[in-house]
Amino acid sequence: MKLTEIAKIIGANFDGVDFEIDSMNTLKDAQGNELSFVASSKYVKDIASSNAGAMIVDVKTLEEVPEGCVALVVQNPYWEMAELSKYFAPPIENNTLPSPIIGSNTTISDKAEIANGAIIGENCTVMAHVYIGTDAVVGNNTVLHPSVTVYRDCKIGNDCMIHAGTVIGSDGFGFATNKLGEHKKIYQNGNVIVEDDVEIGSNCTFDRAVFGSTLIKKGVRIDNLVHIGHNCEIGEYSVLVGQSGFAGSTTMGRNTVFGAQSGAAGHLEIAPFNTFAARTGVTKSIKESGLTFAGFPVMGHRSWLKLQGKLARLIK
Amino acid sequence: MKLTEIAKIIGANFDGVDFEIDSMNTLKDAQGNELSFVASSKYVKDIASSNAGAMIVDVKTLEEVPEGCVALVVQNPYWEMAELSKYFAPPIENNTLPSPIIGSNTTISDKAEIANGAIIGENCTVMAHVYIGTDAVVGNNTVLHPSVTVYRDCKIGNDCMIHAGTVIGSDGFGFATNKLGEHKKIYQNGNVIVEDDVEIGSNCTFDRAVFGSTLIKKGVRIDNLVHIGHNCEIGEYSVLVGQSGFAGSTTMGRNTVFGAQSGAAGHLEIAPFNTFAARTGVTKSIKESGLTFAGFPVMGHRSWLKLQGKLARLIK
Amino acid sequence: MKLTEIAKIIGANFDGVDFEIDSMNTLKDAQGNELSFVASSKYVKDIASSNAGAMIVDVKTLEEVPEGCVALVVQNPYWEMAELSKYFAPPIENNTLPSPIIGSNTTISDKAEIANGAIIGENCTVMAHVYIGTDAVVGNNTVLHPSVTVYRDCKIGNDCMIHAGTVIGSDGFGFATNKLGEHKKIYQNGNVIVEDDVEIGSNCTFDRAVFGSTLIKKGVRIDNLVHIGHNCEIGEYSVLVGQSGFAGSTTMGRNTVFGAQSGAAGHLEIAPFNTFAARTGVTKSIKESGLTFAGFPVMGHRSWLKLQGKLARLIK
């Protein structure tokens, strides 16, 4: 999409040399052919080092924009980014793509739907009522139980098993809100990558990234009804027990264990080899490793036990 | 159904002038051609002003029944109401109805199932393994991702997006229990209405009303794995984050925000423009607006922070 | 499978008289044609009385193995059990079995998939996108709403209703972990049995047993998004409200009520006729009956109310 068109859509002035914008991206990851934006003052620190070809800013942040990067000035950059995200969203399905490629010895139910452009490896089992979207990729020896949905562009590795009803790649929960309290959808143009040897229970929901990927790394084990927000990264061999949930952009190191009905807030970093007891609500990044935590807000497990003892005495 | 038949089914005496009963309804909403019931002493106050044509009561509440309304006296009105609800339930599917009506430029997967009597607007995308029930209505420009189920009689507005695996209109959790502890289903003969510009995440469950409608108003944004009980009303532009859940008949005003894994008990009224932090459990109606709450049972967010501070000191 | 083959797979010495092993089972339930294992020191007490034909043990527990039972000695019995479980897993589908048997007056959507070997009773309604696996059995007068999945070998009783998207019989969350933190799946070769007159809401997940059955007894009522772990037993007429979850091998007596977003840890025994308020987290077995509980960790409901009063005073 031409920069002049973009400027027109969002009502920004632009009279420089026009060029093609291929996609939108964060300040950190955007390249010269990409458009970025400053969603809030929290991101102003990332402006100077950004390689974005153009940037949506408000008038207050205009002077931070580095030389060589086109600034598009609007009142509400986040709202305009939401508006533009729609234009960069690929079609939900694309029937002009070639028929799906299916590896040898793979069984696909005639009641499954595989969109054009999808690639499925060898020795897979794709059961009834499964949907695999455009340009999605499934590795070898992977089993997709009934009614699994893999949205377009998502990747599932080798030797995975996904149980019935699980959804991989639905849109992350992203929208801008204006002063009237109205919301505008931010199209989620990233994907989900599930690496090799991952087992996922039934009726889980893993959201696709807004940009980039939501990442489930090798050997992870996930129980039923688990929710993973957009742009999360789940470390190798981590274990997420039933009904746990993870807000957007939280990353955890390898062999992290989250107990039943636990959860983590967004944008946290959790060091590897920690265990979080059932119902733990992680509200801050965890830098230590090899520990056990509990409670909401999160605390060390021993502290939590001590607290329960104190509370028990309180009512005696 | 004739009143004499109804009396016979529930073992009540009736020797007045017979007439046709079209449906069952609450004391407040029932009209002259409808049958109501007094489920518990909590509802006795609604008897006098009810316009119901007939009413199932026990002998203790018989004298409260207004003149002109037929009283059917039984031992356990709630149990008999449950028994009767079955007779007023429409068939799950009705193939005598005309073929579904599909608007122009709407794409329907050949692996979707649209029941007779359904109406779908223009420019919609209905993906594989979607089910749209008898007499359901979908507006224009709406996208239903794979394996979405819309039960019979439910209505989805314009410009909506519903993500994979979400269920709109399953039966509300209603049953009567006798002294032996056995349960009898109360057929849920209402529906769900989703207004315009609503986005709903994956694997959510919205229950149909027992009478009337469960209502999701304009511009609402709902994340994944959210449960909405029968007869709830979600105000315009409200935001319900992942794994939150709402018991029956709770209403919330516009721009209410419920954080992750939060919830509300049933039969509450929540004023508009309030925010409930993650894990909040709302146990009472909220009359103030513009505030932030937290905790279970619910309290002001500042109180909750103060409490956490006190508790932290308790274990030092 | 011959015992010599089994010994070879797990690298154990065996030079006795070879015989056929039909399946794997727990120490308590294994018979002479079955293989058992000692997963941890917790189970050493069950060795002496086991009727298993053979047993996987480590060198420390070797001397406990009763006469007449073959001991297969390995370093990590649980890991080797996981490795072997794969060999005893039946194929996901088995098309050599006869076509499904469907009772009279049963309606099956042409968009449902019924695997070979399945049996469905009379007067059932099987809606679009339902999957019923190999050797599964459904009784009479049962309704399966759209996109319900019943995995192979599971049994659903008479007069049941299962709402859309619910999954019966996905694999229990079982795996062994080695010293490197890598996991190996334990194939779940048991099933789920749902008895008569059970209603189950939408998008629930009930896991199949590792051995034996996960059991939902007569007259149970289950709301939406409820998770039941492998080998649980839910007593007659129990009520499980929305988003509650139950870890593996927990049993509860009849007319147990679990409120919304509540849960129980694994391997607990809960006496009948108890009620657990919303959000209760049951962390220990409950031996009394007829009481109401709340809180996490669980306590009597009155204690919980008293505690909330104390906490409220703490911040005044």
Biggest chain pair interface: A-B, 41 and 40 residues
CATH fold call of the largest domain in chain A = UDP N-Acetylglucosamine Acyltransferase, domain 1
Shape of chain A: flat
C-alpha end-to-end distance of chain A: 69 Å
Q: How many β strands of chain A by DSSP?
A: 35
Number of domains of chain A: 2
CATH architectural name of the largest domain in chain A: 3 Solenoid
Q: Fraction of residues of chain A in helices?
A: 10-25%
Q: Poorly predicted ranges of chain A (pLDDT <50, ≥5 residues)?
A: none
Percent range for β-strand residues of chain A: 25-35%
How would you name the oligomeric state of the polypeptide chains in this document?
Answer: homotrimer
The biggest beta sheet of chain A reads: 11 strands, mixed
Total helices of chain A: the number is 3
CATH H level, superfamily name of the largest domain in chain A: Hexapeptide repeat proteins
Strand order of the largest sheet of chain A: 6-9-12-15-20-23-26-29-32-34-35
Average residue-wise pLDDT of chain A: 97
Class from helix and strand fractions of chain A? mainly beta
Radius of gyration of chain A using CA atoms only: 22 Å
CATH class of the largest domain in chain A: Mainly Beta
Q: How would you sum up this structure, described in words?
A:
The structure is a homotrimer of 316-residue chains. Chain A has 316 residues and is mostly beta strands. Chain A folds into two domains: 3-88, 3-Layer(aba) Sandwich (Udp-n-acetylmuramoylalanyl-d-glutamate--2,6- Diaminopimelate Ligase, Chain: A, domain 1), CATH 3.40.1390.10; 101-255, UDP N-Acetylglucosamine Acyltransferase, domain 1 (3 Solenoid). Helices cover 11% and strands 27% of the residues of chain A. Chain A is built from three helices and 35 strands. Chain A has an eleven-stranded mixed sheet. Chain A has a nine-stranded parallel sheet with strand order 5-8-11-14-19-22-25-28-31, with no helix packed on it. Chains in contact: A-B, A-C, B-C. The A-C interface holds A 109, 111, 125, 127-129, 143, 145-147, 161, 163-165, 199, 201-203, 219, 221, 223-225, 237, 239, 241-243, 254-255, 260-261, 273, 278-279, 308, 311-312, 314-315 and C 92-93, 111, 113, 129, 131, 147, 149, 151, 165, 167, 170-171, 173, 175, 177, 181-183, 185, 203-205, 207, 225, 227, 229, 243, 245, 247, 261, 263, 265, 281, 296-297, 299, 303, 306-307, 310.
